[in-house]
Design brief:
The protein is built from 8 helices and 8 strands; from the N terminus they run βαβαβαβαββαβαβαα. It is of the alpha/beta class. It has one domain: Alpha-Beta Barrel (TIM Barrel), CATH 3.20.20. An 8-stranded parallel beta sheet has the order 1-8-7-6-5-4-3-2.
Length: 219
């Protein structure tokens, strides 16, 4: 079984002191920094762009796990790569040619992720799983933090684990959306090895980030 990694979502951080918040995550034992990029088109919200990521990355040694919820995504891959994204995750519905977008990310020497919304089927990405480093399963509808976890998506994680075993391929399985100390256990049991969490990490136990990350890692 893979070691459980924690990728805190800065969507739940204090945006007035974002650099300091990332430093707290780094010191608290985070394995990755999860950056949600939204365009107000593919999802109903707007967040940060390449200049902010570039500024934050300068003083951070942890890899940036950048989730692009933008459409059309292909033409923006270069900008996020240059800004400092280490993992670039895209949605199959957001590109006209998923194969070309995967190749573009790989050619930029970045890790490539594909993401499935709660209603998106594994069949959308099945033919590309031998070319990706990560599959991100959304356990809420993307666009806003603080939503309730959808347990039905765990079946997709189990399906991915079967594909991994049958085809003898390896990729990380990440889950994002409403993750807390209770449902994280279910996600890990299903086969997820990277947990994205915002509210739980920044708000639980009076905001003790180090304790919250440690608790999630020990489930």
């Amino acid at each position: 079984m893979k070691k459980i990694k924690i990728s805190p979502s800065i969507l739940s951080a204090d945006f007035s002191r974002l650099g300091n918040e990332i430093k707290r995550l780094e010191e608290g034992g985070a394995d990755l920094i999860h950056v949600d990029v939204m365009d107000g088109h593919f999802v109903p919200n707007l967040t940060i762009g390449p200049p902010v990521i570039k500024a934050l990355k300068k003083n951070c040694s942890i890899k940036f796990d950048v989730h692009l919820m933008i459409s059309p995504v292909h033409k923006y891959i270069d900008a996020y790569s240059e800004a400092g994204a280490d993992i670039i995750t895209i949605h199959p519905e957001a590109t006209d040619d998923l194969s070309a977008s995967i190749s573009k990310i790989k050619n930029l020497k970045k890790k490539v992720g594909v993401s499935l919304n709660p209603e998106s089927k594994v069949s959308l990405i099945k033919d590309y799983l031998d070319r990706v480093d990560l599959v991100l399963i959304m356990s809420v509808n993307p666009g806003f933090g603080g939503q309730k976890f959808m347990p039905k998506v765990l079946d997709k994680i189990k399906e991915l684990k079967i594909i991994q075993e049958n085809q003898k391929i390896d990729f990380d399985i990440e889950i994002d959306g409403g993750i807390n100390f209770e449902n994280a256990k279910e996600a890990i049991k299903a086969g997820a090895n990277i947990l994205v969490s915002g509210t739980t990490i920044f708000k639980s136990n009076n905001g003790d980030i180090k304790k919250n990350i440690s608790l999630l890692k020990s489930l």
